[in-house]
Amino acid sequence: MSLLYAYIPLAFSAFTSATILPGTSEAAFAVFAHQFPVHAWGGWLCAGLFNGLGSMVSYGMGRLLPDKKRPSEKVMRWFERYGTWTLLLAWVPIIGDALPIAAGWLRLNWLKCAVILLIGKLLRYAVILWGIQGLIIYT
């Protein structure tokens, strides 16, 4: 299989996993890194960038919400306490999809949100890659 054809489903999975659509980007990234260990860091960058881009689509969706549609009180408390740094948790299942939407609804600075989202996504995939490379070494 051509390497390009491996990057496309990885990018698609990473993108959709960061939106309200279901996805399994961690599994797609793990398979990619295992099948193409020489290109694992390229896969890391691809997954992180497309997952961050998907979160920014969610941020944009939040900006389109009417003012009367407020995020949950729990989400609001997190943003009041930690600000945009809350977006480092956007990878967490269930609440993670809501955080970029809430950030958009709150009209937080889009560039700062994009940078923090990207950092969080890249860190998550780095941890997965570290785990995969540890498994490969010990098997």
TrEMBL record:
<protein>
    <submittedName>
        <fullName>DedA family protein</fullName>
    </submittedName>
</protein>
<dbReference type="Pfam" id="PF09335">
    <property type="entry name" value="VTT_dom"/>
</dbReference>
<dbReference type="InterPro" id="IPR051311">
    <property type="entry name" value="DedA_domain"/>
</dbReference>
<feature type="domain" description="VTT">
    <location>
        <begin position="29"/>
        <end position="128"/>
    </location>
</feature>
<dbReference type="InterPro" id="IPR032816">
    <property type="entry name" value="VTT_dom"/>
</dbReference>
